[in-house]
Amino acid sequence: MSETLRESCGVFGVFAPGEDVARITFYGLYALQHRGQESAGIASANDRRLYVKTGMGLVSQVFDEDDLRSLPGKMAIGHTRYSTTGSSGVENAQPCQIEVADETLALGHNGNLVNAAVLRTDLEEQGIEFRTGTDSEVISQALINAPGTTWEERWTHLMRRLSGSYSLVVLTTKELMAARDPMGNRPLCLGTIDGGWVVASESCAFDHMGATFVRELEPGEVVRITEDGVESFQAAEPKSAFCIFEYVYFARPDSVINGKLIYPVRMELGAQLAREHPLDADIVIGVPDSATAAAVGYAQESGIPFVEGLVKNRYVGRTFIQPDQRIREMGVQLKYNPLPELLEGRRVILVDDSIVRATTTPRVVAMLRKAGAKEVHMRITFPPIISPCFFGIDFGTRWELIAGRLNDVEEIREHIGADTLGYLSVDGLIEAIGSPKDKSCLACFTGDYPIPVPLQMDKLALEPAGGRDRDEVEWLETVPSVSRRS
Questions:
Q1: Domain, as residue range, for 225
Q2: Which residues contact 330 (CB under 8 A, 6 or more apart)?
Q3: Which of 241, 272, 294 is the last residue before a domain boundary?
Q4: What is the spatial distance between Cα 392 and Cα 471, in angstroms, rounded to a whole number?
Q5: pTM score, two decimals?
Q6: What is the pLDDT of residues 230-244, one digit of tens each?
Q7: CA–CA separation, 320 vs 308, rounded Å?
């Protein structure tokens, strides 16, 4: 994607007595690195205690051999983070660890709560103190303090209180648990490994360690893994609203989502785009890497040759060394390099997965023209994004969105400098993916949210010196409160 949208987070868990669970988790997180690059963490457990290691940066920057040796046990969970609630700091890295009386747990979270501020206020009024600015800590405290004598009772109580998206991995000294919100907004799947069990945001994490994919968790389902095996229960009634952007951009192309391998789905998105917006041109190129499969699909459907006209530097933005002013001004040239020999004098169809803020797209178009392209025609596999996301994607306000500010496609075309611009239609998107419209979250291009959402959200609202007063947030509908465990 030319806009470099930030993914939510990646979560992983393993229960495998006798195995090096920290190392397995490390490789699981490595496979999920695309879902978050700000921080990473692993928590492991035996029957006596939890061990936690977190840090800022990529998985390979946070952990070394000594770190993995310091994380013993028969089970572990891991997390890669992009911050959607709370700042990007080591204090907000996950898994977060919570202790109440004689209980302790660690939790990793992918998603975003929309009622975190309300729940946190309720918990603070009961004397519970918070150390971070994340909604994940709110979930942790709400779970460990939930009423009930069994985990089923506590999870059922919790899911009645939480509102938003969450795929969770939870670790205690006795068991590993995984849970998916009633919307099933973010992916979560279950697998087996060497007599043990694994859970992960995406099935691609299983492939790298020889694990076997079993199934995806159902919306509202909780899975418990102990020495006695696996049991699951439905903690909330499902009302499916899976994030359709996972198909288009977030998930790795080698992952299976809702029974579909992502790569051919993206090829079909490109093919459908070619049917809706045909054009006579010389070559088709994709913005690497997320639009490559779609560009191949467009080329095959249209009969126009596909070429790799842009080469991507995959390591840009994944370092803590800041560029100097000269490099900063180069902007998109640092990330993409065009191939003039392939572009000179050509009419180019440029396929991308979406246009969000339209800050980078004009530079990509200009770069292709500078490299010799005679014409540049943009084709987008996602409808115009007009509404903010409250469930874990980093566009939280309408004013950030080019399609939310400008009146029509022609204005956007002029802004990005393309010769023509064509978006895939909503019906075309649904047809290409093959996912039922009533089981998908389409809010970012329809404005129709599957649950009540606040009129606006402040990413730093839960920080000690955070944003707006929590009592000042306006809601489309009131949300329930949470009661402390009795």
A1: 9-241
A2: none
A3: 241
A4: 22
A5: 0.90
A6: 999 999 999 999 999
A7: 29
Assess whether 127 and 76 both reside in one domain. Answer: yes
Beta strands in 238-388, from DSSP E residues, in sequence order: 242-243, 256-257, 260-261, 283-286, 310-312, 336-338, 347-352, 375-380
Q: What is the pLDDT of residues 287-327, one digit of tens each?
A: 998 899 999 999 999 999 999 999 998 766 555 445 555 55
> Does one domain contain both 217 and 286?
no
Establish if 462 belongs to a structural domain: no
Is it true that the peptide bond before 305 is cis, omega within 30 degrees of 0? no
Shared-domain flag, residues 260 and 401: yes
For residues 150 and 265, membership in a common domain is answered with no
Q: How far is C-alpha 442 from the geometric centre of its chain's CA atoms? A: 15
80 and 117 housed in the same domain = yes
CA dihedral 16, 21, 24, 30 (to 10 degrees): 130
How far, in Å, CA of 421 to CA of 412, rounded?
8
Q: Which are the catalytic amino acids?
A: 9
Question: Do 291 and 144 sit in the same domain of this protein?
Answer: no
Q: Are 134 and 96 in contact (CB under 8 A)?
A: yes
What phi, psi does 229 have (nearest 5°)? 115, -155
